Amino acid sequence: MTAATTSTTTPPAPTRPRSLSGIKSTGHPHLGNYLGMIRPAIQLQDTHEAYYFVADLHALTSERDPVAMRQQTHEITATFLALGLDPERTAFFRQSDVPEVTELTWYLSCITAMGELERAHAWKARKDQGDEGAAVHGLFAYPVLMAADILLYDAHVVPVGKDQVQHIEFTRDWAMRFNHHFGETFRIPEAAVREEVMTIPGLDGRKMSKSYDNGIDVFLPPKKLKQRVMQIVTDSTPLEEPKDPETCNVIKLYKYFATPEELSEIKAKYRAGGFGYGHAKLALFDALERHLGPYRAEYDRLIADPATLEAVLAKGADKARATAYQVLSRARERLGFLRWPAGRTH
Ligand code: TRP
After folding, report:
1. Domain ranges, ordered by start, for the chain
2. Is 223 annotated as catalytic?
3. CATH number attached to the domain at 18-200+305-335
4. In the CATH hierarchy, which fold is given to the domain comprising 210-301?
5. Is 210 a catalytic residue?
6. In testing the pocket of ligand 1, which one of 30, 51, 58, 210 has its CB within 8 Å of the most ligand atoms?
7. Sheet harboring 49-55: ordered strands across?
8. Partner of 80 for a Cys bridge, out of 85, 98, 110, 187, CB 3.0 to 4.6 A?
9. Whose CA is nearest to atom 11 of ligand 1?
C-alpha cells in the first residue's frame, strides 16, 4: 500500500446513505425497467441521497442516431419525473454531462483483467452470436464504465435488476483492488435487488428486453397499451378448459400490478375453466391503467417540454459533477498524478 503524502481521507460519510443507478437510453423505458429499477430507485429517494442518470455513454455502444439519443434521454427523464422523481432532492443527470466518468474508466481499465471482462455475461452472450471480432470495444469494456459510474459518486447502494448483479460484483472487486494497491479511495457499493422482482417476462415469456422487442412501454397511450397486452403469447387451451396460472405469461405480469385478492381470484378462474386468456389480458390492461394511467398526463406534458427536461438534467449534472470532482481528486492523488491540473475547478 502506498502512503498518501497529503491529507486525502477516506470517503466522507454523507448524512444519508447514497443510492445510485443508471438506465441505458436505448429504446423506450418498459415495464421491466419500471419494476426492476425505476420504481425502486424512486422509492429510495425518501431514505437515501440519490443520484440517478441516463446512461447515454453506455447507449453509444449501439445507438448511433443522435436524434434518437436525445429523444430517448428525454423519454427516460420525463418517465422518472412523471413517476415521482423529485429533482430538488435527487440529482438526475445525463452520464455524458459528467465527463469525469471517462477519466475514471481509464484508471479502472488499468487494473481490470481481460479475463474478467471475457467472463461478463453480456460479452459471453455477444460472443455466442459469433463474429465477436466485429463487436465494438465499448461493449467489451462496458462493465468498466459502469464501475466508474458507481464509484465516482461514493454510492452505498445500487438499485438494479437482477441482470446487473454481475456488474456490481465486478465493481466491488475493482474498488477493493484499487483501494488495496493505492490506498483507501473508493466506497464499496452493494447491489439492491428486489427479490420479488427478479426477472420480468416480456410478451413471449423471455426476459423483457429491448433487444428481444418483447417489451411493453411504460407510457403507451391506452389504445396502444391494450394492443400490446393482447400480443402476450399464451397457449391454445380452449376457453372452456381449466388453465395453469403458474405458467401463463399474462399472470406473470399481472402479479406485479394486481392486489393479492385480484391475483388469487384470477388464479381460481384459471383453474375453474370457462375463463379465457383474452379475459386475463383485459384484467392486466385494467390493472396497468390503474397503476400507470394517473401519471400519463404528466408524462405527456413533460415530453412536450424539452426545456424543462434539460433544466432538470443541467441541475442534476451540476450536483453530480461537484461530487465527481471530489472523488476523482482522491483517485488522482492516490495514483501519483496532480490532484488537479492548474485551473480545473470542477
Ligand atoms: N448497465 C445498466 C443497464 O443496462 C445501466 C447502467 C449503466 C447502470 N451504469 C450504471 C446501472 C450504474 C446501475 C449503476 O441497465
Report:
1. 18-200+305-335, 210-301
2. no
3. 3.40.50.620
4. Tyrosyl-Transfer RNA Synthetase (1.10.240)
5. yes
6. 58
7. 91-94, 49-55, 18-24, 157-159, 190-192
8. 85
9. 22
